Amino acid sequence: MAKKIVVIPGDGIGEEITNAAVLVLKKISDKFQLDLTFESHAAGGTAYDLYGTPLPEKTILAAKAADAVLFGAVGGAVWDNVDPALRPEKAILGLRKSLGLYANLRPIKVMDCLVEYSPLKKEIVSGIDIMIVRELIGGIYFGDKCESEMKDGFERAWDLENYSVPEVERIVKLAMETAQKRNNKVTSVDKANVLATSRLWRRTATKVAASYPDVKLQDMYVDNCAMQLAIHPTEFDVIVTGNLFGDILSDEAAVLGGSIGLMPSASIGECTSLYEPIHGSAPDIAGRGIANPIGTILSAAMLLRHSFAAEAAALAIEKAVEKALLDGYRTMDLYRDGFKKANTEEMTQAI
Amino acid sequence: MAKKIVVIPGDGIGEEITNAAVLVLKKISDKFQLDLTFESHAAGGTAYDLYGTPLPEKTILAAKAADAVLFGAVGGAVWDNVDPALRPEKAILGLRKSLGLYANLRPIKVMDCLVEYSPLKKEIVSGIDIMIVRELIGGIYFGDKCESEMKDGFERAWDLENYSVPEVERIVKLAMETAQKRNNKVTSVDKANVLATSRLWRRTATKVAASYPDVKLQDMYVDNCAMQLAIHPTEFDVIVTGNLFGDILSDEAAVLGGSIGLMPSASIGECTSLYEPIHGSAPDIAGRGIANPIGTILSAAMLLRHSFAAEAAALAIEKAVEKALLDGYRTMDLYRDGFKKANTEEMTQAI
Ligand SMILES: CC(C)[C@H](C(=O)O)[C@@H](O)C(=O)O
Ligand SMILES: CC(C)[C@H](C(=O)O)[C@@H](O)C(=O)O
Questions:
Q1: Which of A243, A266, A260, A318 is nearest to A69 (CA)?
Q2: B251, B279, B333, B336: which to substitute to probe chain A, counting the most A Cβ within 10 Å?
Q3: Chain A contact for B188, CB < 8 A?
Q4: What are the DSSP E strand ranges found in chain B?
Q5: B155 chain-A contacts, CB cut-off 8 A
Q6: Distance (Å) from the C-alpha of residue B122 to the closest C-alpha of chain A?
Q7: Domain residues for B283?
Q8: Which of B257, B283, B301 marks a domain boundary?
Q9: Which residues take part in binding NAD(+) (chains A, B) (predicted)?
Q10: Burial class of residue A141 (count of CB atoms within 10 Å of its CB; 0-12, 13-18, 19+)
Q11: What is the pLDDT of residues B46-56, one digit of tens each?
Q12: How far apart are CA B234 and CA A337, in angstroms?
């Protein structure tokens, strides 16, 4: 039976990179007889410009009805002064919420042939293999907020950070199960020496961990984790944390692991899963056909693996990416003397 | 007229490192006839054990009456299960609040002879010179919080992130003035694509910046900043940000700049200023006389400069630290083959 993938390109380079990934998916679909169909939908600043909303109802319905969603990227300075409720970012935040995507999985690995792209010394970063499990539909991202109010005679704004026990249980369980398939170690990151929410997080994580005696749970403060990622990144196996800390730490980890242009992610939950590269919409290079499609192509591989249990096809894509890189193809962001300069299309063809 | 420094050693290695710094201050005081007096006061987990509170009233009063405060470090796993209101961290948080220390200045620099200690490649980190200006008595650290309540049938906890316009104005002004004495560039870090508080922060920063036409203001998302610090750290001059983001980013920056054991900080505000190393209390090595005293000794140099306008004396300390390092002295945290292994006392003597 045909499997439907809803493709949401978004803004900036979103169109180019999702096109590239769809091309690869079509190729692999032929090869492995996966019978995939694709349907494109609008979201982000471009959707706002066209329809007055960054996340049209039609897009949400299509995503819910799909077997998987492939997402590009949203955002851009041109929409900086739009009403906060209509910002391009609302598209991805709204999709995460509507689809109940409570977990964002961001694998941080670096191929041997790319170790030199890491800003870290080779001996520090070699062998890095982290899975960041970020809570994605709770915390301060979705707490009550106030853009402006008067208090004691002054204007202020606020956002509520908050987590409930079931929200923490759900994500920590997933982290534990993820660790069981890896190296049986989970680092739970919080700021329990300052935040009440973190203290609830920590005691809940400890309770959940009791049911997984084979997995070692370590608690770490977020400031310390930001340091440890830079000095001992290979010590980590699975990192589980809240929405905001996950945003910061996963970007730091991604860049330490090499190029952010290479990093995929999977968001999973109660309904359709969504796959997106972790980089942004890069408006400065949009439309020039030079964006690195690899983050999105590897997200497509995660899609095949997690949503369609098509492990062989996923592996084939991952191998093809590795081969293209070993063969010396490099998009502009990674180009150095002695390599083969490739634009988006050439890189995609090589893969 | 004699100047009084209140010394608050705190927990763990706090005693050893503040002792070292006081020794250096006494020496420099003799040499430059500064006429310093010292008075030691309790705080942190040790104060809690002795007096049932991490921040005795006597300590607060002494700090307020002093000309400057030299602080060690607080915290330790033994106090993890203490009532949140009585945790060791309340000592430093309470002192910051009582003294109105709204700005924490964390210079991130790396001496040429220490570049190799950075986890970053030499060509990326060489020449790094950042001043992080962190808001210190507002934001989610001091917003209302709730350890546990029932909502919709589930237990949850929450913390309120919030900033008022005057709070942001004050810290951004300071950042602007700091940049005027440096390279005229301020990066204001927020998460304005998600948080209402960040949007107020950003519009206020933009307004303040209008009065400093010679300073270039750049806005940056916190996740992007966590990346840029790792790949382009030398692009930054002054970074200004809120309490929580400042906590995370300054620790990341410190470790990228080399050893966190070397980094000093100054907290300034409406009353007495406070100086402390940015590292923690390191309970695992406490009492063994092997802690690196340099972060605290350089904090003492900042104290002389900022609180007593004793620039020559401050410089003398900084030169002495550099000399000891150039001479090959290394505490355990930095020791490598071919150097002179020094414990806390030997390093202090060398300086
Ligand atoms: C675009 C933005 C709202 C988003 C986030 O903060 O979650 C992005 O940074 C990410 O990490 O996916
Ligand atoms: C000890 C802790 C409360 C403190 C903070 O988070 O501010 C520390 O990490 C720091 O940065 O000074």
A1: A266
A2: B251
A3: no
A4: 3-10, 36-40, 68-73, 103-109, 129-135, 145-151, 154-164, 185-190, 216-221, 238-241, 264-268, 274-277, 329-331, 340-342
A5: 164-165, 200
A6: 9
A7: 1-101+263-351
A8: B257
A9: 280-292
A10: buried
A11: 999 999 999 99
A12: 24
Most informative mutation of A190, A199, A223 for ligand 2 (most atoms within 8 A of CB): A223
State both tokens at A98: 């509507």
Same domain, A19 and A106: yes
**pLDDT tens string B266-316:** 999 988 999 999 999 999 999 999 999 999 999 999 999 999 999 999 999
Q: Which of B238, B257, B276 is the last residue of a domain?
A: B257
Q: Where are the alpha helices (DSSP H) in A71-213?
A: 89-98, 122-125, 165-180, 196-209
Reported confidence tier of residue A39, pLDDT bands at 50, 70, 90: very high
Distance between CA A18 and CA A10 in Å, rounded?
9
pLDDT in tens, B92-142: 999 999 999 999 999 999 988 899 999 999 999 999 999 999 999 999 999
Which residue in B has a C-alpha nearest to residue A219's C-alpha?
B77
Q: Which two tokens mark B282?
A: 């390191």
Structural tokens at position B61: 């009063």
Distance, CA of B244 to CA of B31 (rounded, Å)? 40
Do both A245 and A330 map to the same domain? no
Interatomic CA distance for residues A345 and B2, integer angstroms: 73
The answer to whether the CB of A159 is under 6 A from ligand 1 is: no
